[in-house]
Specification:
With 200 residues, the chain is α/β, with parallel strands linked by helices. The chain has five helices and nine strands; from the N terminus they run βαβαββββαβαββα. The protein has helices at residues 9-20, 37-44, 81-86, 107-113, 149-175, and strands spanning 2-7, 25-31, 49-51, 57-58, 69-73, 78-79, 91-95, 118-125, 135-142. Strands 3-2-1-5-7-8-9 form a seven-stranded mixed sheet.
């Protein structure tokens, strides 16, 4: 299984480490910032690192030949349809919500803001619509009373993402395909960035 990883920051590094322990070949790591901790970790491991030409989108020419699967881990770039077509199994990402609820950049913050008693994580197929692709794996967790978004992410959602990602990779290795269940659009909600209000 030959994987191209696009991502950043701590979750990108955690995903890289999980992949390295999972007996897959990491063809390339794609980052928006060459000084990011994921770029540093990949270079230290002797893995090819590419800085995106455009920080908002990953193009087909940036995906190495022979890629079986593209994985995004804390990447804010959209993977183009052309790039997905280069990869044998397309691409998957992790979203820290029970999709289709809380699609968007601030899913964990909206989970807290809405007072959701239950949250969870979803591995989904990368598609044209943001966070709208078919579900490959999903699992729920409770939200603690008075928990902050960061606490929920660190306690439950980040570890859940790594566990679900490993599960989907194992499925792909065993069966040569990815699970896919369409999202139910009637339950879709948006989680745009929350503006911090200035004190009056």
């Amino acid at each position: 299984m030959r994987i191209t990883l696009a991502g950043s920051r701590h979750f990108g590094v955690a995903t890289l480490n999980m992949l390295r322990e999972h007996a897959v070949e990491i063809a390339r790591v794609i980052v928006a910032d060459g000084e990011d901790r994921l770029a540093m970790a990949a270079k230290a491991a002797g893995i090819d690192v590419l800085v995106q030409a455009n920080p908002k989108i990953i193009g087909a020419s940036e995906i190495p030949p022979g890629t079986d699967l593209i994985i995004t881990a804390h990447s804010h770039a959209r993977v183009s349809q052309e790039a997905l077509a280069v990869s044998r199994l397309g691409g998957i990402g992790y979203h820290p919500s029970l999709l289709p609820r809380h699609r968007g950049i601030a899913a964990v913050e909206w989970t807290i803001k809405e007072g959701d008693p239950i949250s969870g994580g979803t591995i989904y197929h990368l598609a044209e619509r943001m966070d709208g692709g078919a579900i490959a794996a999903q699992e729920w967790c409770f939200v603690k009373k008075d928990e902050t978004a960061r606490e929920l992410w660190e306690r439950a959602l980040a570890p859940l993402g790594l566990k679900l990602m490993a599960k989907v990779i194992d499925h792909a290795k065993a069966f040569g395909s990815l699970p896919a269940k369409p999202q139910d659009e009637q339950f879709a909600t948006l989680a745009p960035k929350i503006k911090v209000e200035a004190n009056a």
